[in-house]
Structure formats: structure tokens, C-alpha cells
Amino acid sequence: ATPTALMVGTGRGAQLGILIKGPEVLETTRAVDTVVLDKTGTVTTGRMALVAVHTADGVTEEQALRLAGALEHASEHPIARAVAAAATDRVGELPAVAGFANVPGLGVRGTVDGHTVTAGRQALLDEQRQPLPPALAEAKAAAERAGRTAVAVGWDGAARAVLEVADAVKPTSAEAIADLRSLGLRPVLLTGDNELVALAVAAEVGIPAEDVIAEVLPEDKVATVRRLQAEGRSVAMVGDGVNDAAALAQADLGLAMGTGTDAAIEAGDLTLVRGDLRAAGDAIRLSRRTLATIK
Ligand code: ADP
Ligand code: MG
């Protein structure tokens, strides 16, 4: 490949809203056959909103929101921001948290108003021996069937509330994924979120269930990319979160959402400046065209 053609391709990328770290990136792009897509913030907007609160007997919504909101206030996760914002709206100023701990891909923990509170995936509450009562388990299952993320909240030895958080698929995601497929690439959805939520999002954007990998811990996202590579695939990864950075670095081609975290942008080879997934197909097309003019 001549340096000049690659430089021209890089310039054209900038016009398309694609920032390319170095001209050599375009050469890697050509071989890609699989595109691994992070769900939250990549395929979906990541702008979550609290849409329902379910509580156990004897617990008020205000109480649940006060404890969960105080805890989530200390986290930057999109789910946490939604919970903290709704809690502030409903109960006003939130109490302080002591001993805050963020458990990546699972949730948060800390002491609020003298209670040890945990919020996040049920797996995290199970570790704390905080089982979910049957009525709340049913509310959680119904929320997940509807494609919403259920945040379990526990204190004093039991799960006592389920918060339903909703995220919307970006309007351009389905078109972007169809475009990747038309370029001969295989889209795969990868997420730490619950399997039912992942399947609901996948169905909305046209990814079959067999290409959905859910409930993956942040450190296992990179292992998933490695496994696909070991199967002989050349993998592009698209992500936005701190928890995507290692997978973006491991992938043959890392595409970071420009709307995402600095960690993701630093780890990627390309940045999709506008956070529009359609730029992923544009990047592949650009590199193929650039390399074709060189030959
Ligand atoms: P994704 O891979 O979709 O970007 P993450 O790996 O960040 O998702 O998180 C996986 C799951 O862990 C979330 O869907 C949520 O259920 C739970 N979780 C993570 N952080 C939090 C938090 N601060 N509060 C509540 N739940 C959380
Ligand atoms: Mg994400």
C-alpha cells in the first residue's frame, strides 16, 4: 500500500466522522469478518431512565430510592445515573455513602443510613445472601422479558426492591447492522446485561439468538474476543465503556464510540466520532476502497 493512498483514505475518514489512529489501520480493516458489538451505549443509546419501582412488603418506594439512589450516586454507570437522577427527583437530597465499592459488570455496594446496601444484578445480591422474594422475582422476570434491565436492591439480609431501567435502541442501529451484514460481516452482540434483555435488543436490530453473548463480566469480554480469534475469525470490536477497553485493544480492529469513555477511545484504532453505528460500515467500505485503488 502506498503511503499517499492511505493518507487520502485517512482524510476521507475524517469527512465521514471516522478518526483513524494511523494509516496502517486501514490495512487491518480489510481482513475483518466478524463485528462484536457492545450493547449498552453502542447499539442502544445508553441513556437509561427509571421506569418502575417494585418493593417488598413493608418497604416504600421512597425508602428503596433513597438507599439505592445514594449508592448509585457514587457510580458513573449509565444505570447508576438513571437511578440517582430519579431518586433525587423523588426524595430530594440523598444521604452519604460509606465504604462504597463498585463491582464491575455486577453493581455497587456500600453503607447508607446504617444499612449495608447492594444494588445490581441478582448474582451480586446472592453473594451477599440476599435472596429475592417470589413477588419481586416475578417483577424482575417480567421486566426482563420486556427488554428492560432489572436492578435488584437489597439490605438487612434480603433483596427488598427491584428497579426497572429502560434503555432505547438507537434509531440507526438496525440499519447499521444490516449494512455490516451486506458487507459480508457477521455481527455478534456482546453484553454484561441479562440474557433476556440482550435477546430483546438483538431481535430489534436483526441479530439472531445464536449470535448473542450475554451476562459476560467485563474481564471476560476480552476472553470472548480471543476465543473468536482462536476460532480463526478476524474480529472488529465496537464499544464505548471502560469495560470494553481491553476487548477493543485485543480485537484485530477496535472501533470506539466517540460518545463513549476516554478509556475506550484510547484503546480503539478508530473512533466513530458521532456515536452512530452506521460509521462502522463506512469505515470498512472506506478501507476496502482505499486498498482497491492502491492495487
Ligand atoms: P454492558 O456490557 O451492556 O455495557 P456492563 O458490563 O456495564 O453492561 O454491566 C452489566 C450489568 O451489570 C448491567 O446490565 C447491570 O445489570 C449490572 N450493573 C453494572 N453496574 C451497575 C450499577 N452501578 N448499578 C446497577 N447495576 C449495575
Ligand atoms: Mg457499553
From TrEMBL:
Recorded superkingdom: Bacteria
Locations listed in the record: Cell membrane
Source organism per UniProt: Kitasatospora cinereorecta
Section covered of the full-length record: 411 to 705 of 756
Family of the protein in this entry: Belongs to the cation transport ATPase (P-type) (TC 3.A.3) family. Type IB subfamily.
Protein name stated in the entry: Heavy metal translocating P-type ATPase
